[in-house]
Every structure is written in C-alpha cells, then in structure tokens.
Design a protein that fits this description.
- It contains 5 helices and no strands.
- By secondary structure, it is mainly alpha-helical.
- It has one domain.
- The two termini are about 20 Å apart.
- The model has no long low-confidence stretch (mean pLDDT about 95).
- The structure holds protoporphyrin IX containing FE (2 copies).
- One protoporphyrin IX containing FE binds next to helix 1, helix 2 and helix 4.
Length: about 140
Amino acid sequence: MYTGLQHLHSYLAYLVLLGVVISLLSALAGLFGGKTFTDKNRKLGLLGLIPTHLQWVVGLILYFVSPLGLESASGEAMKNSVSRLYFLEHPLMMVLAVVLITVGYSRAKRQVGTTSGFKSIAIFYALGLILILSRIPWNAWPGN
Ligand code: HEM
Ligand code: HEM
C-alpha cells in the first residue's frame, strides 16, 4: 500500500500544480480584464481545488504509512534538513496551502455575479502556490 500511495501522491502533484496554475491564470485574466465572476469562472477555480483536496487526503494517509512521515519524527531528525522537510515542514506548509486555497474558493463561490471573485482566487491561490513550491521535496521529485 505504501508504494501505491507514494506513486499516487507523486503523480497527483502534477495535477495540483497544473490545476492551481490554470485557476490562478484565469483569475488574473478576469481580474485585469475587469470582468464579472460567473459560474463558469467558479468552475475554473475547482480545477485547482479538487486535485489539491485529493492530494491532502492522500498526503495525510501517507504521513502515517511512510517511513519518512511521523515514524521518522525525533529530536535527531529535527537537526537533519531532509528529514525535517518530510516529517514537519512539508506537511505543515502543504496543509496551510490547502487551507488558503479552500478559503479562496469558498469566498469566490459566494461572489458569483460580482467582480470580486477573481480577486479572492488570485490572492489566495497565489499564496497557496508559493507555499507549495517552497516545500516540494525537489531533490526527490519528479524522480531522479
Ligand atoms: C498540495 C499539497 C501537496 C503537494 C503538492 C505534495 C507534493 C509532494 C511531492 C511532490 C512529494 C515527493 C514525491 C516523490 O518522492 O516522488 C511528496 C512527498 C510526501 N508528502 Fe506531500 N504533497 C502535498 C501535501 C502533503 C500533505 C498534506 C502531507 C501530510 C500531511 C504530505 C506528506 C508527504 C510525505 C510523508 C511524503 C514522503 C513520501 C515518501 O516518499 O515516503 N504531503 N509530496
Ligand atoms: C477525496 C477528497 C476530497 C475531494 C475530492 C474534495 C472535493 C471538494 C470540492 C469539489 C469542493 C467544492 C464544493 C463546492 O463547490 O462547494 C470542496 C470544498 C471543500 N472541502 Fe473538500 N474534498 C475532499 C476532501 C476534503 C477533506 C478531507 C476536507 C476537510 C477535512 C475538505 C474540506 C472542504 C472544505 C472546508 C470545502 C469548502 C466548502 C465551501 O465551498 O465553502 N475536503 N471539496
């Protein structure tokens, strides 16, 4: 089960990046184009939200199954930047990113028919994307 989840988490990461970038770019286009946020634009926001939610459920399970997750947490592991990334920094920052992206979508959903939906998605998805990019284990991904 571990290997399957590890691969799933690794492949889903592409969908997360792709989805969040598409949502973000389309929100920026709407924002600077001064358009009204429609239900179609809300659905473009879902492109980023859905893979992100799936990924966080898979990541959470992985955290309890992987030898790099909770199992490796210790004072010693704290002193090693690679193990600290896996058991602490990556999970913490990713959860924070998921919360930001969810808040962005959730606000935008209630702003259909106004012009502010684009701004909610643009700001919160951009912050989430920065956190995600800052704590992807780039040494191990997308494979060596
Ligand atoms: C949007 C959210 C996330 C993204 C984009 C993401 C991305 C990644 C990537 C690219 C890897 C490296 C995979 C590889 O070695 O090929 C990884 C590993 C890992 N992630 Fe995430 N992740 C996310 C959320 C989470 C969350 C929320 C948790 C835990 C609560 C988590 C726990 C882990 C663990 C434990 C590993 C190491 C797996 C192993 O190789 O044993 N991830 N993640
Ligand atoms: C397989 C996993 C998941 C998928 C595919 C998924 C998918 C979705 C989708 C499609 C929405 C948007 C619904 C809408 O348009 O109103 C959503 C919203 C949301 N989800 Fe998830 N989700 C998953 C897991 C979770 C988990 C585990 C949690 C929390 C523990 C969570 C918390 C939320 C919250 C707070 C919202 C925002 C509700 C709002 O629109 O205000 N999701 N999710």
